[in-house]
Sequence to fold (711 residues):
Amino acid sequence: MDEFLASLRERRQQLDQTSTIWKTVERLLVHSSYTRDDDQHYILRRLNTDEVRTLQTVCRCRSQDWSRVCVLLPKTTTTTTTTASVGNTSVVSYLQERVSNTTFDGIVVLVIQDSNININDSSMVLSPWNKAPVGIHNNMLVSNCILSTSSWISNNTLLSDTHILSSAVVVSCGSITATASTKDNEIWTQNDAKLNLSVGPESGGGRKLSLSPECDMKQVCQQLTNYQNHHQIPSLTISQNSSNMNIISSHCLVRNVPTIQNIYMAPQSALEGATSVTNTLLCSTASIANSSIVYNCRLQWKTSIKDNSHVSDTILMEEAHIGPQSLVASSVLGPDVHVSAGEVHCSVLGPNTNAHHQSLVISVLWPLGRGNVGYGGNIGSNHTGRIPDQETTSGEGVFWGLSCVVKFPVDLTMSPYSIVAAGTTVPPQRVCMPFSLIVTGNDNNHNNIIPGWVLSSSPYTVARSETKYSTRRKAQRHNHYTGWKIIRPETIAMCHWARKQLACVGGTESPTLTKTYATDKAIPGIGSNILSEKGRLAGIQAYSDCIQKFALHGLLMWLSTQETLVDASLEREFQAVPQVLAEFVNVDKLYNQVSWPEFPWQATMNERQMWEYQKQLLLDEFPRNGSSTAEWVIELLQTLVVLEKAYAAKIFKSKKRDDQRGAATIPGYERSHIAAEIDPVIKQANQDAEEVKLAVANLTRKLKSSFRSKL
Fold:
């Protein structure tokens, strides 16, 4: 949060500085001869006669009123220089070098840089421009501007109401203007430059968000869930009468943009070849390029909009990228989100979400992200035939397959890391089965669901995703809250609830494998889908393995931290424990009241509470059978070894299946694909299983020696 506040303070400081200079100029022009020393380390004065003559005759510049053209000189050129001498210093030779062939209108302030500033510093990010003439050259009209003569400002048609700081490049642009004092133009000086937008339903309501440029997903989610008490970045004081000007900061690049209006550019941001940029703020290192049209947007650090994209009323968090040929409107793109060749409208896309390949995402609330939208995926059938007033909520890590069609409303927030298969049409429903597969069924009215399918038949997906989300998490300012694990207490609680629903099917007769269950009237949580008996049993097993492995890993970790392992201490540890499962995540309540699940960064479990939770799961999953606690613990550890080995084997099998199918179908497949035997994900899984085996062997020796010595 300190970096977010630092960015806000830097912007406020720059706005105050611009405002101070402009108000100083306005006071100066009231007096016929006036040199201003306002204790800001600079002197502001009118041009003298020699300077005006030089600009007119030598530099070929024009102005209808030269008295409104001023120079701003550094006050601290030397330690012995007095204010009076600096104010009277002629800058004729300096202007002759830095200003040429430009028409001035209205108030223009030419900022004369201190002589000790090295504009050719090799470390400057714009070093390729060092060979071009520095200064203000060949501009058709400059009006009401503050311009550093140590920037590259040339070949622009109209430059108005703009403050350009030193070492910036502004070349070959059409119109760079700021509107008069209007609501649109006050975005930098009023209300922290917040972006007000509506997500969810396009019509007939909507969820209103008010986000500062330095917001994060935690603040977005607070506003989604609690409109009255959402967290805001603390306010800082800003001048009451800040000037309405564009700000182009040091080391910015603005090149070949026909229309720019009402912009704020932090240092090292860039506009290159965009078509139009209006009412937009760019944090440091953000960029807009290549025929893109951008209106009323906020771009955080290292973000980009490029390649003929059209973006409006959107905030891009750090490392979010749009393009090529994308249409995004009224949306929030979280950190590390990529949108290309598709449309996103009225949506919230959480961290590490990808929407590529001509996909459509409309009115989708996806705050935890980490998902993917395949080619032709239409997550946007929000029109009821009356008005587009529907929306959907997507769970963490959900994969929307190729050409799937989702008819709103749909809720998958309690089905994290599920897959909607290619070509599937999803009718309105609520599905609460984590790690599931939804696929088109034989019944035209219902799809088939296989609960826990990703865990049992495609565990490679989970293993790879854990690594992928870690290595692709490039947004450093958001890194402290985006690195949550896939298998964690919240997802385990959902698996626990889903398994309970699958296991509680009524009836005394033993069902056959041909039996089916239709919709959540038969089994809560399966939505409007059909579940086979085989799928039900597979889901129970998949969820059980996941829950047990999670709990057993907690046991392994706890035992590894104990200095002594004696039966008495183990017995005390595994006595009655509080019922933390229901208190931690009450999934029944979430299901019955249709509430948002707890977000990962809201989890308050410390290491001890985590162990208490895992310990309760152990006691529920592995009831004591009368043996000593040490013997029972040894049995649990051996079970963990078996589960880890089986999990690694499943990961290998899921990848090997693709290898075999590809080799039997495509010539040369083996030479152009990484085989399962050398796949880094599988190698890591095997290594993890081996490490667990060795750790268990070590702990088992200690446990056996403890109860042997007792005998």
Remarks:
- The CA atoms of residues 336 and 473 lie 6 Å apart.
- The chain has three domains: 2-186+243-272, 198-237+286-430, 489-710.
- The two ends are 58 Å apart (CA to CA).
- The chain is about 35% helix and 25% strand.
